[in-house]
Inverse folding.
């Protein structure tokens, strides 16, 4: 009897074996993450964008580490937060581990999670694309430093079989779609922006974040600036932007990972993603009209201009959307590592300073490989300056 | 000395008059104290869970008022400010709706199948087939929740599309209730979650039905057959009629299991938390899925505490339903504990 | 003299009989179809997971860790498998002694505490596991951070009522004759339980434990709130440690095909582990019942 039962179960699995054939690790067709000729854009974006996006410019800034290495750092540190930075963070962690043997573990749980966990001091550092507000710092266990790590773009990604990349969107149209006012892909507003494209008569499956998200913060900050419909539907500018908003419509995905999963699984979906997620999974994304009226493709040639003309406050926390440069991609942001200014453990403080000094110098040379832009020289210096403020027992660690 | 009590059933009796050595009596007492402490731990644990959940949620309960959470179906953490107490931005009605709807859809699908399978296994199948069939149905319970969710996204939902695309025009056109069956259907939905839950509760409901049907007295069945009834008529009279409360108990216990399910549901329900979505083919959330999604990152004023209010309500509902189910089934099965 | 001519009633003799027979046959088919549908769904799930998982599963899957960037092809779930074994192992070490002791209190000693415990054990079974995770977050993670120990504590609470229930049933099956004989020889109650009752029920107890372990290995919700998912092998229980279920959940909801491939292989591995414990439990119980 028991042999029969085991045989039945084994037989079911054996049938699958015969069906699928034994595989080996690595035997999978991936959506390759290798770039198509370092960011070259596709035809759908137009020739102006192709010119902008073929010029990768200063992708390896080769910053020098003026801080040096502090001895006595811990061998392991933990971090959690933004999914926006997660692909880059994991590559940084791997390279840093190979260079120094220090093990940094990072959990991609969303910027909201990053803020919450650093407030509760359950991790050594958090990460949030919109940083941390004074009210949130007040709820934490002490003052918190915010350290920008890179520049990235939030792109409108869509799943429309047969429609090429480079669909044009304006901020107001995106706002109306997310407010639930535009519900179909062949709406006149979308058709007017994209005259040559055969948009299908299909419901738009709006996709947003279900978790507290800095990517949402950047996206809604842009919508608030550009879409009066969005602001009025949500009930005012204080409610229409932030890590969490009261989404009137749409499917919720957990993390950039989850949103990209829903978009690739759902025909007719429109979601907002950090650009590496869209590119790595071959999800088509569009171009967005900036303040100067040009439709710009998000790429290494159009992200760094976001800091032009921006004055950074002492906390370094500010919005980078809707830049004034004529060639800037308008939905751009940075991500902030969050650490306590006054550290209790010298080993942890040293490890944190060493890691982030490395990220802000050697690490910046890796950004372009995943379609993030490195920090510009001015912002990079400001970021390094934050590290110098870290103290243990009242003494700063960096001389 | 311990006496036989009906709840223990197999308690041993220490014969009177035997004198034991002092040290062994102490050892006996220590042992008994130890196992009693372990039993007491269960009691303490449950009390602690309730106390700590309500304790963490208390600031929100006090700030907004205990019943304000049930008065609204709008969950909008971004509306919350530290000062304002009204309206409560953390209305949980739509999570209760989502939990109830997905569980009810699950039971509506699972219960007939479970009763039918239970009848077949106990009344029709030859004796040698009963054990393997029961075993195979029970195997459904061994599949972990995350695997059901994963399979649900990639295998089940694509298979649901043709079914739903048929249902939407036919049921959606009915005046009045048509809005409950309205499109568009993007795959992730209350309905998909309900179907996944149906598969997950099927083994436990079938198992209880099997037990209930197996206790139907043979002489009543034979009498019915002797009177010339067909097999199905005999089953209706001698098995089903007396099993009514057992089936109801099984349904309630299945419901209790569905209510607590988190991971598979959150992977296929669409995670839309703002308010009740009218159509069963639209996205929603449940009491458990909102906790899973928002717990690690709730930073708005009273957001984290409100999630504990959600957890407390989930605990209460799940416990009440489970106790009700056990009470009903105990009546028919004659005691389990 | 009345002659009785026994013959089965035929449709021509009894009105409506043909319809009743047709209904009977139809119901038989319907009920059989229900069972077939149930088994077909089971087969669908298992075959689908196996087919997807076998495309990627290879020996490297058990020895390598995931790449940090989920889009990268390759890697495995070595850290999650090790983490699951350690976390569930610690949870078992916590819950089994307490569970068996509580079952002993309920069945061997009885009394009001036993009745209350029995009732509350049933209640504890019905507590959603996400609620248990939230509870552990409050009493542990908030103070000590995410760790394998926190996840083990949560899983121990999940396993505890299952162990108590299964153990209580097994202890009740031990015949009273053995207890009485032991008492007649002058052995104390405690000694009787330890040396006679428990060893007799041993294989049943093992069965119950194995089923509880199978259940715990598959749990994701309590782990989600008590530990963090990361890419390194970790064996220190005081640190965050990922589990197989958590890795599958995290990778399954992404859009990266490379991550999904790993998740399918992980799902197949998880089902395999759970089935090993579940089938093993039945083999142990079947061998035991064939001996007694």
């Amino acid at each position: 009897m028991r042999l029969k039962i085991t045989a039945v179960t084994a037989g079911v699995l054996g049938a699958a074996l015969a069906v699928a054939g034994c595989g080996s690790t690595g035997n999978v067709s991936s959506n390759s993450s290798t770039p198509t000729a370092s960011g070259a854009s596709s035809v759908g974006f137009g020739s102006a964008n192709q010119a902008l996006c073929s010029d990768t410019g200063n992708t390896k800034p080769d910053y020098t580490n003026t801080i040096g290495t502090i001895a006595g750092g811990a061998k392991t540190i933990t971090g959690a937060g933004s999914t926006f930075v997660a692909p880059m963070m994991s590559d940084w962690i791997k390279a840093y581990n190979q260079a120094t043997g220090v093990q940094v573990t990072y959990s991609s749980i969303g910027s909201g999670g990053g803020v919450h966990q650093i407030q509760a001091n359950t991790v050594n550092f958090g990460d949030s694309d919109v940083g941390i507000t004074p009210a949130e710092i007040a709820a934490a266990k002490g003052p918190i430093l915010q350290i920008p790590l890179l520049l990235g773009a939030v792109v409108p990604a869509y799943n429309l079989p047969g429609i090429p990349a480079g669909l044009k969107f304006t901020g107001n149209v995106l706002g109306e779609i997310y407010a639930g006012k535009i519900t179909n892909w062949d709406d006149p507003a979308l058709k007017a922006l994209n005259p040559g494209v055969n948009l299908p008569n299909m419901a738009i499956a709006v996709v947003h974040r279900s978790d507290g998200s800095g990517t949402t913060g950047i996206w809604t900050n842009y919508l608030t600036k550009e879409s009066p419909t969005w602001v009025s539907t949500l009930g005012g500018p204080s409610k229409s932007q932030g890590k969490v908003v009261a989404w009137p419509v749409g499917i919720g995905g957990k993390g950039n990972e989850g949103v990209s999963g829903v978009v690739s699984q759902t025909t007719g979906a429109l979601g907002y993603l950090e650009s590496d997620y869209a590119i790595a999974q071959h999800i088509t994304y569009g171009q967005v009209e900036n303040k100067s009226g040009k439709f710009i493709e998000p790429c290494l040639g159009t992200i760094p201009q976001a800091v032009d003309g921006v004055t950074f406050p002492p906390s370094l926390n500010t919005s980078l959307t809707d830049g004034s440069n004529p060639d800037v991609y308008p939905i751009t942001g940075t991500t902030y590592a969050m650490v306590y200014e006054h550290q209790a453990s010298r080993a942890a403080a040293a490890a944190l300073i060493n890691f982030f000094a490395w990220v802000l110098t050697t690490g910046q040379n890796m950004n372009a490989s995943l379609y993030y832009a490195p920090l510009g020289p001015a912002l990079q210096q400001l970021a390094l300056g934050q590290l110098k403020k870290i103290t243990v027992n009242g003494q700063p660690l960096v001389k | 000395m311990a006496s036989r009590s009906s709840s223990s059933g197999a308690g041993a009796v220490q014969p009177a008059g035997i004198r034991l050595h002092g040290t062994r009596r102490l050892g006996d007492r220590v042992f008994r104290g130890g196992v009693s402490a372990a039993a007491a731990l269960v009691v303490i644990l449950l009390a602690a869970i309730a106390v700590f959940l309500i304790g963490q949620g208390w600031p929100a309960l006090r700030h907004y008022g205990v019943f304000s959470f049930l008065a609204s179906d709008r969950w909008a953490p971004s509306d919350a400010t530290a000062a304002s107490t009204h309206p409560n931005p953390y209305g949980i009605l739509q999570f209760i709706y989502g939990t109830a709807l997905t569980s009810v859809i699950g039971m509506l699908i699972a219960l007939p199948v479970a009763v039918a399978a239970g009848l077949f296994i106990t009344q029709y199948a030859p004796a040698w087939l009963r054990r393997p069939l029961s075993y195979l149905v029970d195997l459904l319970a061994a599949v972990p929740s995350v695997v059901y969710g994963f399979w649900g996204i990639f295998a089940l939902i694509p298979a649901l599309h043709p079914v739903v695309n048929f249902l939407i025009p036919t049921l959606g056109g009915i005046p009045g209730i048509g809005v409950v069956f309205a499109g568009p259907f993007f795959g992730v939905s209350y309905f998909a979650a309900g179907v996944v839950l149906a598969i997950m509760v099927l083994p436990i409901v079938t198992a209880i039905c099997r037990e209930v049907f197996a206790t139907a007295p043979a002489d009543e069945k034979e009498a019915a057959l002797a009177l010339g009834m067909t097999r199905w008529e005999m089953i209706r009279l001698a098995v089903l009629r007396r099993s009514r409360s057992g089936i109801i108990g099984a349904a309630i216990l299945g419901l209790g299991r569905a209510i607590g399910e988190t991971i598979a549901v959150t992977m296929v329900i669409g995670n839309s938390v703002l308010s009740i979505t009218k159509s069963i083919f639209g996205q929603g959330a449940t009491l458990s899925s909102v906790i899973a999604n928002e717990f690690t990152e709730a930073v708005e004023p009273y957001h984290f505490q409100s999630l504990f209010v959600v957890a407390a309500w989930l605990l209460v509902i799940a416990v009440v339903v489970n106790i009700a189910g056990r009470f009903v089934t105990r009546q028919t099965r004659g005691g389990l504990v | 003299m009345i002659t009785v001519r026994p013959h089965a009633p035929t449709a021509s003799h009894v009105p409506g009989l043909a319809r009743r027979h047709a209904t009977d046959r139809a119901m038989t088919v319907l009920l059989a179809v229900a069972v077939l549908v149930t088994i077909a769904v089971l087969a669908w799930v298992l075959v689908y997971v196996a087919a997807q998982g076998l495309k990627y599963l290879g020996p490297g899957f058990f020895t390598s860790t995931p790449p940090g960037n989920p889009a990268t092809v390759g890697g495995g779930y070595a850290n999650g498998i090790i983490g699951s074994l350690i976390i569930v192992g610690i949870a078992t070490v916590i819950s089994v002694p307490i569970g068996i002791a509580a079952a002993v209190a309920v069945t061997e000693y009885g009394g009001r505490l036993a009745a209350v415990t029995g009732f509350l054990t049933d209640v504890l079974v019905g507590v959603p596991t996400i609620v248990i995770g939230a509870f552990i977050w409050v009493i542990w993670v908030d103070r000590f951070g995410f760790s394998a120990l926190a996840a083990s504590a949560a899983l121990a609470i999940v396993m505890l009522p299952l162990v108590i229930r299964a153990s209580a049933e097994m202890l009740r099956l031990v015949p009273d004759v053995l207890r009485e004989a032991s008492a007649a020889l002058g052995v104390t109650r405690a000694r009787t339980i330890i040396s006679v009752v428990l060893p007799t029920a041993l294989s049943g107890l093992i069965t119950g434990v194995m089923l509880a372990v199978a259940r715990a290995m598959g749990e994701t919700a309590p782990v989600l709130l008590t530990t963090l998912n990361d890419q390194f092998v970790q064996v220190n229980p005081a640190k965050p440690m990922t589990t197989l279920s958590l890795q599958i959940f995290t990778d399954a909801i992404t859009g990266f095909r490379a991550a999904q491939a790993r998740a399918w292989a992980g799902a197949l591995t998880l089902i395999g582990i759970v089935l090993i414990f579940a089938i093993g439990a039945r083999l142990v119980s079947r061998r035991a019942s064939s001996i007694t």
Notes: The radius of gyration of chain C is 26 Å.
